[in-house]
Design goal:
By secondary structure, this protein is an alpha/beta fold. It starts with 5 loop residues before the first strand and ends in a 5-residue tail after the last helix. The structure holds glutamic acid. The site of glutamic acid has 7 residues, from loops.
Length: 285
């Protein structure tokens, strides 16, 4: 097996897998198989309120039914919180993150009064020291956000950061892409409730698992930009990326976990074989 090609499928057990997940998982699995590379399954279960063990058990069963084989042990993010805390601590020690005490409601209101850009592109900045101290002494919960201003200073200029796209982003982006982390704003790296958040966990895990090729849907293309910045700040390698087009239904809508009829369980229960589904998704044999 080749260590020069290691890819992964990283589902969150927040519902049953659907046709779109099957397509994504097969795209990664077959890409690894074609070059005798490695395929890794990672369970992204940091969201303790939405992730459920029964969904994890179901997804393992569904992927095995589909014919996928992955390496054991499977990494579950919930079992590696210390890794994420260490990464946040290293950013904190360099003043690259700040505490954000704002509630969702505060942020939504701020977005309405400054209608330029989505809520995600939030740029709050740290509180004044006095206020921060008061909030801390009151025991108010806070998230850690990446400071784009400090990050820009740390890396010199964002234009220096790029990644290789060997698939295609949503607007047909290909080849060497200059990262634009500023579009995502001061992203949350540690949520108030669980002490870590998606971008940070993904970047840490992709490095820990030595992922060389990230293969995922092009709905995550935008996520690559702040993730590229985090790799630079944490001194981690940058994999190559392949963002594949999302599978849509006959009406052109994306599949979602709420579309029960399109879950792999339902498809299987209706008598469709894994082989037939694979062929339908473009992976015969
Ligand atoms: N856990 C994410 C999801 O289910 C995927 C993360 C990734 O592939 O980077 O959408």
């Amino acid at each position: 097996m080749s260590a020069s090609f290691i890819t992964r499928f990283a589902p969150s057990p927040t519902g049953h897998l659907h046709r779109g997940h099957a397509f994504s998982a097969l795209t990664a699995f077959e890409a690894a198989r074609a070059v005798n590379g490695r395929f890794i399954l990672r369970i992204e279960d940091i969201d303790a309120t939405r992730c459920k063990p029964e969904y994890e058990a179901a997804l393992l069963e569904d992927l095995a039914w589909l014919g996928l084989k992955w390496e054991e042990p499977v990494r579950r993010q919930s079992q590696h919180l210390a890794d994420y805390e260490a990464a946040i601590e290293s950013l904190r020690a360099r003043n690259l993150v700040y505490r954000c005490f704002r509630t969702r409601k505060d942020i939504a209101e701020a977005a309405v009064s400054a209608p330029h850009g989505p809520v995600e592109a939030f740029r709050g900045g740290p509180l004044h020291a006095n206020e921060e101290e008061r909030f801390l002494s009151e025991g108010r919960p806070f998230a850690w956000r990446l400071s784009l201003d400090e990050a820009r200073e740390a890396v010199g200029a964002f234009q220096k950061l790029s990644f290789r796209e060997w698939g295609e982003g949503p607007k047909g982006e290909r080849g060497r892409i200059v990262a634009r982390p500023e579009l995502a704003g001061d992203v949350v790296l540690a949520r108030k409730d669980v002490g870590v958040a998606y971008h940070l966990a993904v970047v840490v895990d992709d490095a820990k698992q030595k992922i060389t090729h990230v293969i995922r849907g092009n709905d995550l293309f935008e996520a690559t930009h702040p993730q590229r910045l985090l790799q630079a700040l944490l001194g981690l390698p940058t994999p190559a990326y392949r963002h594949h087009p999302l599978l849509t239904d006959a009406q052109g809508r994306r599949f979602a976990k709420r579309d029960k009829a399109q879950t792999l369980r339902e498809i299987r229960a209706s008598g469709v074989t894994a082989q037939a589904l694979r062929a339908e998704l473009g992976f015969p044999g």
